[in-house]
Structures are given as C-alpha cells and as structure tokens.
Amino acid sequence: MKKLISVLLAFVMTTSLALPAFAAEERPAFDHKQDVVLTAEVMNGIKQLDAIGLDGDLIEKLLTVSNHIAFSDDQKTLEIDLSDNVLMNEYGFTEKQIADLKAILNGTYQAPSVSADFLNSHPASRAARFYLSNEQLTMGTLAVLATAAQAGGPALMAAWTGVSTALAGPLGTVAGISTAVLGATFFADLAVKITGALVQGKGVAFYLDWGVPPVKTVIE
Q1: Does the keyword Signal feature in the UniProt annotation (predicted)?
Q2: How far is CA 215 from CA 40, 52, 90, in A?
Q3: Please, which residues bridge with residue 80 across strands?
Q4: What is the Rg, in whole angstroms, of the alpha carbon atoms belonging to the chain?
Q5: Residue 24 and which of 82, 127, 170, 188 are 20 to 30 A apart at CA?
Q6: CA dihedral defined by 110, 115, 121, 127, rounded to 10 degrees?
C-alpha cells in the first residue's frame, strides 16, 4: 500500500510540474496588434498637414501605431506598448519624433502654428456650438481624426493633440481645452460619435458645457 501511494504521489507531482510548461508552450509569446493601414484619402490629408505647417510625417507614423496606444491609469494621459528602439527601427521615427510622441502621450506637446490662410478658411462659430462637418472628417487635413477614431479613444486623443492648432479653426475655444481636462471618457465617447457620424453621413457638433468634461458632443 505504501509503495502504491508513493507511486501515485510521484505521478501527481510529475504531472503538476509538467502542466505549466505545456501551457506556456501553448500560449502565444506576444499578442501582436495590427498596424493601421492608411487610405489614400487620409494620406492626402496628411500631405495637407505639411502644407499648413504641421508635422505630417509624425501624424502618419502616429496613426500607423495607434492600435498600440492606450489610456494611462490616470485617464488623462496616454501610454504606448512599443519601445523607443522599435519605434525608431521598425516604424522610422526620428529621435525628435519620439520625443514629440512622448509629449503627445503625456499631453505636453505644442503643435506648430498653422498658416493664417488655413485658419481664415475654417472660421469657428462665435456661438457656444462648434462643428466638424462630414466633409471635414472624410477629406482634407482633419480626416486624420476619423482614422484615429476608428482605432479608438486613445488614438483619437493622440491625433487630436498632434493637430490641435489646426482644430483652432473650426473648433475655436474647444481646441484650447487641454486633453487632461477633457479626459479619457470624452475621447472614448467622441470616437464613437465620429464613427457614427461617418456611417450616417453627418458631422459632430461640440457644445460648451458647465459640466465635466466642459464639452458635449452630438451627431448632427
């Protein structure tokens, strides 16, 4: 009997030690996220970003890796699961662009000033309602927002920061509100609104509000 028990214990111990090793072999080494493929319309809009004074190359690379961007625990900033080495060697980021990307993620990025001609051609409303039309979301410089929205709230928050000075045209006061104040909930909701507006052939209206966040969005 003792010999039988000893054999059974040895079998159980051997099996229990082998199972984790087997499970580890079955588990994928890394959950790869797909890069965002940019359409011809978006690439055309990115070229227009360069024309008005923004870093279109940075925005193109940011959109490409946007599936790797997520909200931080504080819900006010962003983080990315790619190392500097991967960003530089696999995605072609320069050292300056990596520094700019980190500034975008932590909300301290200062987008370059855009041309006066662009701002004059995209005047903001003087009322408490601001608007991004369906045309603006599907073609031209601001089409990058629609692409980012389809990748999710974190990607939209990053793209919004990257083109913030261009947003000052159509969105006026709204564009001046920091992403930390708007927060993760705002951008998660806005991503849904923009995606819905694209499906419905509509735009998105922005209303200043006394609540938190201080802006409400509606598909119109």
Answers
A1: yes
A2: 32, 27, 38
A3: 69
A4: 23
A5: 82
A6: 40
**Helix H or strand E encompassing 88:** helix 84-91
CB 142 within 8 A of CB 166: yes
Q: What angle do CA 202, 204, 209 make, to 5 degrees?
A: 150
Is 184 strand, coil or helix? Answer: helix
SS3 for 147? Answer: helix
The Cα angle at residue 23 between residues 21 and 26, in degrees rounded to 5: 115
CA dihedral of 62, 67, 73, 76, whole degrees rounded to 10? 40
Peptide bond into 112 cis (omega under 30): no
CA angle 66, 106, 86 (to 5 degrees): 45
The DSSP element (H or E) to which 130 belongs, if any, is strand 129-132
Q: What is the pLDDT along the chain (220 residues), one digit of tens a residue?
A: 444 334 333 433 333 333 333 333 333 333 457 888 888 888 888 888 888 888 999 999 999 999 999 999 998 899 999 999 999 999 999 999 999 999 999 999 988 888 777 766 666 555 567 889 999 898 878 889 999 999 999 999 999 999 988 887 778 778 888 888 899 999 999 999 999 999 999 999 999 877 778 889 999 9
- Residue 55, both tokens: 């870093």
Closest CA to 134 of 190, 199, 189: 199
